[in-house]
Amino acid sequence: MKNTFDQPLFIFAAFFLISLLFPDAMVHAKHEKNETRPWQGEISSGLIFDNNILLVKTDKESDVIWESGLFLAYKPKEISWHTLAIYDRYLSNSELSYSYYEIGGQVALGAYQYGGFSLNFSPTSLLDKQDPNRDLLSLGSYGFNLFAEHDTEHIGTIALNISYTRLDYSAPFDAKDSDLITLSPSLFYRITDVWDFFGEYGYSSGRARRGLIPVGFNQSAFDDISYKAHLLSLMFTHWMPEQTRLRFRYTIRKKDFITGDADTFHQGRTDRTHLLSAEIKRRVLENISIRAQVKGLWKRSNQAFVDFSGNKITLSATYQF
What we know:
Layout: H1 6-12, E1 39-50, E2 63-74, E3 79-90, E4 98-108, E5 113-126, E6 138-151, E7 157-169, E8 178-190, E9 195-208, E10 211-216, E11 219-223, E12 227-240, E13 244-257, E14 270-285, E15 288-301, E16 308-320
Antiparallel strand pairs: 1-2, 1-16, 2-3, 3-4, 4-5, 5-6, 6-7, 7-8, 8-9, 9-12, 10-11, 12-13, 13-14, 14-15, 15-16
């Protein structure tokens, strides 16, 4: 099964931890070029080396992912609009490729207050490799995000995000279909002229449809992936000369399954996932930047057979217009 830690969090909580192709579109970056043109955009493309694309401990496989995307922003007057499209293509396991699309807007609610929304959609894509001996598991999603921000004089920018996502699994895994609600306050603070801080706490609740799913040849088991989760993410950004930026981020997520006695696989299970990343981004020409990122992920559970670890190295370039 594909390592889907990044994909679902990116789908239903884009403001959380996921190092997207366009991180500055999601996090304040006061040092970035501030254009007054109504149309702005970014085209980005890069390669990701993932040393463990599968979740199962007994089957480890690496792959190179070609990640490309487009971000467009339009601000004719008081309301600004944006759209985002990202496509991840697995070069060796092309059947695992997936995409994500988003459209949204933002409006000023006062001199120092802002509010906005976004709609997102991810078409159905496979989560595991094709195997004639088992049913294929795939996932699609759609949802929305609402947010409000307030710029303060002393403590920086505080924000609140509320998101809803519907996870739609393929038949015969409909029992996994889930409704996810996430609430996440955050803070952006300028420490010095060259150091920024961003912190976020998130609480999410997932309610699954529940029911029987296939687990082997002519076998089935009751499945309930309902859960409650807490997330804490801390990020420090250092602005250097020569249009260079360093960014360090740590995220921890605690996920408690609230499954009943009928699901012995998830009952009483608690997963703790740690994500640590470091990246450097440098503007090499007026409209072109390059970025390198290293990311490590460790999941530890009170049921050791679901423990997981993996590393990713990303090299990408972005063109701004």
